[in-house]
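Appendix B. Raw example, untouched.
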Amino acid sequence: LMLSGCTSGSTSGSVVTEVSNASEVSETSAASQDAEGTSEGAPEAPQGAGTPLTAADIRDGSYEITVDSSSTMFNITKCTLNVSNGKMTAVMTMGGKGYRYLYMGTGEEAVAADESEYIPYVEDADGAHTFTVPVDALDEGIACAAFSNKKEKWYERTLVFRSDSLPADAIDNPSMKTAEDLGIADGEYTVEVTLS
């Protein structure tokens, strides 16, 4: 379903809002929806994920991470999560060059925002477009608006940065203990295990 609103901003254009419930999309609106607005619905958090993880839960460093997107047209081919001093940013490498700006928020918020708040692409050494975005938490849906070069519109996306794609030693969880932490001597032990 496309909802468009006219604005006066030079890069604001209109906003395309995507509905994740396919039953709400009429045949008329579905037929008029262009490929760039195609949506499969907002991605879900990883299986078994509990409370979203913040920078406080992850050791400082750079990690390759998987990002799920609500649209196949917003194709992220690679993503590096950088954690430092209690903050996280992600460098997303795109599979195409169709977007000029990103805005971390809804399309309406992007239209109302000052252009200085937009995140422009940067070309990497291979000529691919990359966007460096702030990440508040992993394993939860984050609203992201992408400004299309071709359509001159903001397209709304939802991104989920997946903690289950990080190496185990990246998670800084005080409740996780090693044999060394517990002072367990070498040997064989029988333990009770609950799997869910």
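End of appendix B.
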